[in-house]
Amino acid sequence: MSGEREFEPKIIYFLCSWCGSGGSETAAAHHLHYPENVIPSRVNCTGALPAVHIVRPLIEGADGVVISGCHPGDCHYEDGNFRARRRVALVKSLLDTLGLEPERVWFRYVAHGEGQRFVDTAAEFNDHVKKLGPNPLKTRSDT
Amino acid sequence: MPEEATSLPSELEGATSLPSELEGATSLPSELTVKGLKINKGAEETMRELLRSLLESGKVSGVLALGRTGNAGGGVAYSLFTDPDAFRADGVAIPLLPFMPSNAGSLLSRLTLKGPPAKPVAAVIKPCELRAFIELVKLNQGSLDNLLLISSTCGGVYPLDLGVNGELGERLPQYWEAVKHGELDDQVRPTCLACAHFVPENADITVALMGEAELDAQCTLYLNTEKGAAFVDGVASLPSDVDGVASLPSDVDGVASLPSSEGGLESHLSGELETEAIQRSHSQRQVHQEALFAGVEVGLKGMIHTFGRCIGCHACKTVCPICYCRMCYFDSQGCEHSPEFYEGELERKGGVRVPSNTVFFQLGRLAHMSVSCVGCGMCTDVCPADIPVSTIFSKVGVAVQALFDYQPGRDVTEELPLRTFAEEELAQVAT
Amino acid sequence: MEEQKFRPKIVGFLCNWCAYTAADSAGVSRSNMPPSVMVVRVMCSGRVDPLFVLSAFLRGADGVLISGCWPGQCHYQKGNFHARRRAAMLKGIFETLELEVEDRLRLSWVSASEAPRFVQVVEEFTGEVEQSGPSPLRDEMFL
Amino acid sequence: MNDKDTTRHQAKRNTVLDPPCGALLPAEDGIEAAFVGWLKEALNRNIFDALLIPVEVPAEDSFAYLLLQDAAILESASPLPPVMPVQGGKAISRLTMRGNGNKRIAVVVRPCEARAAVELVKLKQAHLDNLWLITMDCPGALLLSDYLEDPAAGAARFAKAYADRRHPSEWDREPMRPVCQICNHFSLRQAPVSDLHIGTLGSSDGAVFIIPASPKGERILEDMDMPVDAALDSWAEQVEEAEQTQTERRRQAHTELRETITGPERLMDVFSNCINCHNCQRACPMCYCRQCYFESAALKLPPENYLARAEHKGALRFSPDTLLFHIGRASHMILSCVSCGACEDACPMDIPIAQVFSLLADRAQETLGYVAGGSLEEPLPLVAYEMDELHQVEQPYVEIYHKQEVQDA
User: Fold this and answer.
1) CA dihedral angle for residue D158, residue D162, residue D168, residue D169, rounded to 10 degrees
2) Which residue of B171, C87, D265, D385 has the lowest C-beta tally within 10 Å?
């Protein structure tokens, strides 16, 4: 029915509270905007983001998940982002093995001051997911 | 064709004006007891029509029913349907399939655990699932509000194995043939062969299946509650304009005279559902039950023989609708023993099973839930070690329930037996 | 040469307000009774979960005694009525499964002032259990 | 960081065991009998205080782990039963989750069970200090459901398939569970986590090797007065050869499996029969959580949530978390998965869950450079990290979007 309309993905953007969220604040302060369908969700540290929380949105209705924490070495908790990187690698490996499009998960560092980088990431990922099309899992009734 | 059906005018007349050539519903006194709504469509089609129309008209916001899963359609699972098309002839829903991938009582509990839905939801479930749900409501694990419960006189369901190896589809013609004659296909689960409560209680709408010789061509809906009647009322596609088919009284008076659901649902099975076929099946199943119960290996030896091969997966507990505890005692810290515990047991007995508590788990679970055991058979079905759990639990359940004159799922207003007492009772227990 | 006499182990769940007080006063008044009961004080006989009884049997008890206030005298008004229903249920389970322990479970009302009655209950029950011998559940490895 | 690197590399190097010599255990009357006899002697000589070993249950239709100190019970013990009703790692964890006991206990398990135990130690769910793990070259196990249909026939089938214990090429893996058919960790060499290993492969007539794999194991052989002087070349050779064929079989099976499960369409066909009983999780030795996330309040939602999701999709499978449960469970335990097959044994719907998980495990563990149950020293992959690794998951930043944004503004 809505085939005519352009596909507008639903994207969850996990931001660590020190850098990723800081980036979004900087972006706000500079009046930069990013696509409205990107829904930011703050976590204390990307290292505290369970793998299930990356998978769950993809099954329950999101088209993509992007995660931004501090640059390597900058983590407020010293090594949370390194742990997050391993977890993302794990999730991507699972999704890849099951043929569930690991490219719907992005992991990119965004520092507190990098408002532009935050906005760019949101916009770039949004375009990227648009190209991928709707997440087939979210419309399946038998998941 | 469903499309045609929807366009048919609603032919609702007073029940008293039913043509006389139909037996069953029509032979009833004209006043209040009329509940049988005879429809000149097969049971399966009637269900589809009814549910589709309920969804389409927005009377219900969803329908919980069985449906096919996967692309090959190999799997069967309960689904919450919102798309009316699922109930078209080629839709994925299969509301009357004799299969029970999980006890829908648990599912309704999950659905309504946090409160009733804002808009009505219909559910097509089996009598034992309905009884389980009533028990769960009593245990504060669900709500009956805004649910339209549809059940049927049940001819049993096939074991899960049959769903796995694909035999289920092949056996269906045989199943329906047996049901038409008021018989049970001998391949249905032993629990079902021995089920004493295959006529639903507390259903808003009951579909007659057992012993309905014509169920491919016509079927009777029993509207047990005002709620059930109200939902069926106005479903245009159901009562056809073909001669000789009864329809529901459309005037409010007629509806209002149906048994009310106030003060909780009650069983309002009238004589007409207690057909000869049902009574016959009842006594047949009684015989089965006695044989089944007699086959239980009792005594300590029996317990060890039966549960010796238990792998401790607690699947019986997981699928049991009554075992609603999020944290079971037997999975809790209370059952995580120190090495010293095992060493003590070892000293005492010379040997100890690890993990321990195999029989303790079974007896403990009996102590916790046997008063509410509805005998749905899920535990046996799911057991990877093929232990006849359900037979033992039903046997104990029946005995324990008799002590308190309690029947699980009979009445939602009835107190759970371990939550109530009478001052003058059981004097012989205390010495 | 004589075989050691079987001395039953009985776990006694005594309610704090009646049976336990009775047991206490039996002790204070130096009444003689068999040392067979291992006392577990509970606040009310209604506190005794069926699992307590099962676990006592499966871990070596030859008998289980639940003792609380007489009907109508419960400190919590109705705890003992619940205890009675539970005992009835347990006996029902034992009988149905023919575990031969239903007579090893005893529920007795003993009020706080009935020290002699408590002694009598213990003597009687100990005698009964002695007669029946060790519990079959006691030494089974595959439980 | 350098320190860390060296320890990790050492750990990895250690994962192939090559003891030059083992002891010889005469086994004229059958390997099991000889092994059980040896255990009995060790028990009588107080080399251990107790044994944890599979014992046939009284109904003679299955096996259960029994902790025993009465040597008489050993009569019905079976060091290598035809089925694996309870994963031995789980039994070890139940026994020692609260700490090391006071008794010295020898534990007879399959290699995958020993590897599970090692993972459980790292997950702080087991303690091995007072345990001696004894493993055996393992031909696999039968599917529990197949075996239970006719235990006697199952036992015979198992015995026949494994008649020649000395040559892996003679082993008939066909009757075994699918995940056993493609197991390449059936012996000790690639995961030397036990203390003693019974090597049947490459042994000569009438004797098997008892291979010490740790100082603890060496001490036992010393105490038993067994000279460690039999050369193990023939064992190592046979194991290596079998490992190669098995690894190749595994690779092939996984390639075929990928064809049948990849993509949402095929994946949902695999899980179409799932009844959400979570039995795979219950049987899994790695799923030790007392309260599983997938049974927790986190997934109990108000009816409006379910109805909204159903509205969106047209229907919502109920219970609604089938795929989330399986992928989510994988994300929790797959790095510790030892492909033991307990999940598949426990599945009432015959979903090839162990095969799917073995594929997921191999690939995920490869990504993070980890082998589950490979060694006690190597830290769990989600606990450890390297600073310089896995850059392929970091999304490179391209300035191109920056320019667009400026234009828009």
Assistant:
1) -90
2) D265
3-state secondary structure B59-115: CCCEEEEEEEECCCCCEEEEEEECCHHHHCCCCCECCCCCECCCCHHHHHHHHHCCC
Look up the ipTM and state it. Answer: 0.89
- Range list of β-strands (E), D57-206: 63-68, 105-108, 131-136, 196-199
Contact B75 A142 (CB under 8 A): yes
**CA dist., res. B60 & res. B56, Å (int):** 8
Q: How far is CA D109 from the centre of its chain?
A: 10
Give the minimum alpha-carbon distance from B88 to chain D in angstroms, rounded to a whole number: 13
Q: How far apart are CA B27 and CA B153, in angstroms?
A: 20
Residue B29 has pLDDT above 80, yes or no: no
Sheet containing strand D105-108, edge to edge, reads: B351-353, D63-68, D50-56, D105-108, D131-136, D196-199, D207-212, D21-26, D230-231
Cβ D397 vs Cβ A96: under 8 Å: no
Residue C137 sits at the chain B interface (C-beta within 8 Å): yes
- Other Cβ atoms less than 10 A from the Cβ of D376: the count is 15
pTM reported for the whole predicted model: 0.89
Per CB-CB distance under 8 Å, the chain D contacts of C142 are: 57-58, 64, 66
Contacts of residue D46, Cβ cutoff 8 Å, sequence gap at least 6: none
Backbone angles phi, psi at D161, to 5 degrees: -65, -25
* Portion 60-89 of D in contact with C at CB < 8 A: 64, 66, 68, 73
By C-alpha distance, the chain C residue nearest D68 is: C141
Q: How much is the CA Rg of chain B, to the nearest whole Å?
A: 23
Say whether D66 sits in a helix, a strand or coil.
strand
Sorted by where each begins, the domain ranges of chain A are: 11-130
Question: Cis link prior to D319 (omega < 30° from 0)?
Answer: yes
Burial environment of residue D286 by CB neighbours within 10 A (0 to 12, 13 to 18, 19 or more): buried
Structure token pair of residue D164: 């020649």
Chosen CATH of A11-130 out of 1.10.8, 1.10.3470, 3.40.50, 1.10.10: 3.40.50
Given 2.60.40, 3.30.2170, 1.20.272, 3.40.50, which CATH number is that of C10-131? 3.40.50
Beta bridge partners of D54: D65
Q: Which two tokens stand for residue D72?
A: 């008489």
Q: In the predicted model, is pLDDT for residue D299 greater than 50?
A: yes
Question: What digits encode the pLDDT tens for the residues C23-50?
Answer: 999 999 999 999 999 999 999 999 999 9
Closest CA to B275 of B71, B19, B23: B23
Domain limits, chain C: 10-131
In the block, tokens 């075994």 appear at D176
Tell me, what amino acid is at B382? V
